[in-house]
Each structure stands twice: as C-alpha cells, then as structure tokens.
Amino acid sequence: MRTALDPDDEPEDGGQHRRRRFLALVPIQFVALLFYVWTGTTEKVNPYATGSLAKLPDAYNSLTNAFLKGHLSLLDRPPVGFTSLKDPYDPAQNAFWSGLYHDLAYYKGRLYLSWGPTPVVTLLMPWRLLHHGSLPVNVGVVIYCCVGLVACVALLCVLVDRYLPNTKTWQLAFATAALALCNVAPFLLRRPDVYELAISSAYCFTMLGGYLLASGGLVRPLRRWRLAAGSLSIGLAIGGRPDLIFEGLFLVALLVYLVRRDHPGRTATYRCAGLLLGPFSVILVLLALYNYGRFGSPLQNGATYALGAVEMTKVPMYQAKTLVPNLYYYVVAPVRWTYAFPYIALPPPPAYPWPVASFYHGEMTGGLLTTTPIILASIPAIALFARRGLRELRRVLLAILGVGVLTLLFLTVVLPGTTMRYETDDATFFLLPALIGWLALSSGRGRRVIAILGAAVILYGCFIGTAISFSGYFDGLRTEHPGSYWALARLTSPLPTVAAMIAGHPVVARAFPAGATTNGTEDTYQLDKDQFGIGVARVELDIISPSNGHWSLAPTFSRSDDAGSHRVSIAVELDDGSAYQVEVNRTPTAIPLMLHRGLNRVEMHATNGKPHQIPTTVLVSVQGLRLVKSR
Description:
The protein is of the alpha+beta class. Among the domains are: 51-129, no CATH class; 493-629, Jelly Rolls, CATH 2.60.120. It is 48% helix and 12% strand. Strand 9 (569-574) and strand 10 (579-583) form a beta hairpin. The N and C termini lie far apart (75 Å).
C-alpha cells in the first residue's frame, strides 16, 4: 500500500483511485462554476453580448484599442479644460471630470491605466483579434475566476495525491467547496468592474502557475514544459497585480528543491534554472519597460498619478503606521450578523477601535480569520508534518504560507486603507495549506472529531463567502435583480424569524432608500440610534416578526422644520397590499403597523400636499427606529 512517507511510489490502483476521486469532484466544481456565472451577470445590459451589442465603455477595452494601434496611453486625450487646470490632481478642481476619468492615471497630458496589462494581452486582445468585438468586463472576470478555480482544485488534488493519498473523497469535496466559496472570488463577481478584472486575472494565473509548477516539478521525470509554462503564469499574475511579486520565490524554492533532490550537473542545472526563471524574468523586464515607457520609471505603475476623490500625489504610501489598522481589517475584523438578508455584513462598522491617521480610509473588509476560520488549521498541521515524516509537504506549505504572509504585509503598508477585493491576492495562500492541514489532521488521533469539526468550520466559511457575494460593495443583487434577491430573502426568512422568536419581539432589520444603491449592508447597524429624514422619496423598512400582531414604530417621527405650513403625513404601504396615512405633528408620532410572522417589507414616504416637492427635502425627522407593542 502507498503511504504518505513514500510519495514517489505508485500504488497498483492509484490511477483508478485518482480518476474516481476526480469524477466525484466534477459536480461540485460544475455547481460552483454555474454560481460564478450567475453571480457575474449583474450588468443591466445583456452581459454576454458580443459584436455591436458589446460596446461597454470601460478602461480595459480602451487600453486594448490603444495597444492595437501601438500606444501605451489611452487614445482619447482629456480636453483642454482639464489639462489647463492648475492642479489636475486636486479633487476640488477636477470634480467636473472626476466621473469620466475616475482612477485613471494622468501624466503629461495623457491618460493611462494603473492596473496591470495582463487582462489585455491574455484575454481582451485575443478576443478582439478573433473579431468578436469588445469583451464585456464582467465576462472577463467570470472567465478568469472559473479558470482559476479549476486550476486551484487541480493543485489541491496534485498535493493530496502525492502526500495524502488516503484522504477521504467526502473531505476532498468539502475542501473543493471551500476553495470555491472562501477565496473572495464570489465577492469579486458581484461587482465585476475593471478593478476586479485585474485582480481575477492575477488569481487565475497564480493558481494556474501553482498547478503547473507542482505537477511539473514535484514528480519524476520532470515535465519541463510545465515548468516553463508555470514560470510564465507567475509572471502574468504579477502583470495583473504587482503585489504578487513575491510569487517569484516559488520559482527559486522549486529550483533549490530540484537541485537538492536530483543532483543534476552544471549544464542540467542551468537548463532547469532557465526553464523556471527565464519566462518569469522576461515578463518582469517587459513590465519594467512598459512602466518606463509610460512614466519614465520601471517601478512606477501610475497609482501615484491616479485621479479620484483624494489627491494621490499627496497620499503617504508605504507607511509603517498603516500596518496595525490594515492588519486588523485584513486578519481579525469581525463580520457582523444581521436580521436582514443575506444576514452577514462586512465591517466597517464596527471600525478599527483606535485612532488612525487623517489620510487613512478603509472600505468594507472582513478579516481572514473571521470569514474563513479554517485557516487556523494550518498552524497545528505544520508541526504535525514534521513528526510524521512529511517534511517535503511541510516545506511546500511553508512556502505557500510564506508568500501569503509577504503579500499580506505588503498590502498593509503600500496603501493607507483596506478593501475586501484585495484579499483575493492572498486568501488562497492561507486557505490551501489550511485545508491540506485539516486533511492531514483528520488521519491521526481523534480523526473523526477533527474531521467533523473541520467540516463544520468549512461550512461556516462557505456560508460567509456566499452571503457576502449577494451584497458585494453596493448591494448589487438587490438593485439589479430585485426579484431574485427578495425570492432568496423570503426563502431564507425562517432563519431570522427563529432569531426574532428567541428575542421575543419584532426587529427592524434594515432601513434604506427603496430601490436605491447602498453601501453594502451598513444600513443594518444601530437602527435604534439612527437619525435621518424622510421626504417624498420612498424609504423601505424590513422588519422580522416572530408572530402576527399589532406593533408601532416608537414615537420618534416628528414634523421637520422644512416641512412648510401644510399638513404633513407619512404614507405607509405594507407588502400585503394594505396602505394608509398617519399625520405627523411637531410632537413625536408613532406609526402603527400590522405585522405578520416572518419578513415584513414596509415602504413609507412623506407628503405635505405639494405635488412638485423636491425629493431631498426633509419633511419628517426620525430619531431612531424602535418597535413597541400597540395597546
């Protein structure tokens, strides 16, 4: 029988066992890929249109046009009104053009992309050359995420077949689900924009490079073309995300491993080094020349010259003082459970609890340990491998973890802030060793308990990864596909209903402008303390009730000073079709509600009899949302 201590021996039925296990994983991957495709279809136009229907105005397709005409900058030049500004990077001066040129780099009268060129040379340009028109950006993100997932699962299988051949198929299935849902890719796909295209391309080539290097270098005889292709893939990953430069250490580590294992002669060593380091080095040189041709420096990618809400030329970068707050968000920032679908919200809020620099700005970011706690399994597993004689596997996983740590630390100092999408760069570097560690721990003492506990933790991480994919940055599913969103909300409403039954009273789960874009699910936080105004625009309240009954929104509604001299009323519409009005005076007024068990959607707006009232005018002031039992 094959043992983990003898990874190069091939069991008699090893090939059949691998094929059976691979076939068992196909349905899971297929469902995951369908989920990726479904999640990525968030555009209002046909997301898979081609030809004349695919003229989506995006920066990467504009760069493709430029490349095809031999230019490094975008073909469209900014108008004289912009170029004549005293300081075109000052948001106060460029506000008129900020929507058109947001996050593009402006340098010496031309516009550039600060994001890497990998999506252009590997996908958009080939697509264009095949006469298919411009490729919609969301389709590109879907393609990269799907290919990356398949390559990542293949890498897992290579490592498991070599070092842990007795792994149970059901455990490998759980690990596959984790790689699909806990890698931040579903979150990227909810808002598949130009940012996500660069990140997903880097993820794709990182996983593809890892698979090619492992399947080509950890076996005998060497598969040299895979080593070269793996080196090229790692270089292309850096062309998508420069912070992945530390992946070059994989190539060096594999070269050292092969020299120590096979003891080749000098000529063979040089040949192997050429295969592993040559394509990677060529890509780095081309990227350096690309940057030099644009900005006069091989290390300048244009981020310093980006146009946006802040003046990037004055934002301190590579600051050690951002290390601790950034680590807080990227590693331990807690997810927040809510009563509103999808029941998970990413921080902030809550925000980093200590003071930060004035230039610090954090977007929604959940900590790796709180969103994917199975990552903790890598710690005891590394120690276990040394005792079981799996030192080679230990070195492989340490290399993966080491690159993940370096990438994470680089992200914490390069920018004064965090954002969830950047976790795609390093999440799998922590996830993959953890899953292999769980598989190894499940084969020792207490294996059943460890296997079950690990499976439960993986399910938790998969739930978190799926939930945040429904909301994304701007609650995209609700705004673009409200039918699907509310169908899922009602299907899963028994979950918060049980929680409300335990609490013993209805709960206001969410308050937001009806049908409008919101920032994730931050409007589910401390609603009993919120202060806001209601005008003629509709506001929706989602209320979870444990039973049918009469309740009232506590008397915190009062007439605003801007309401004028007319009578002011709140028009209330419930999802059961009932509607009525409640007059609001200067004294606090209660709003009666008839609630039914489960999810209640309540829409309201204010009116003072003026037919052409400005939507932003506040007619009713609200001092917190609280429910009290009607008498």
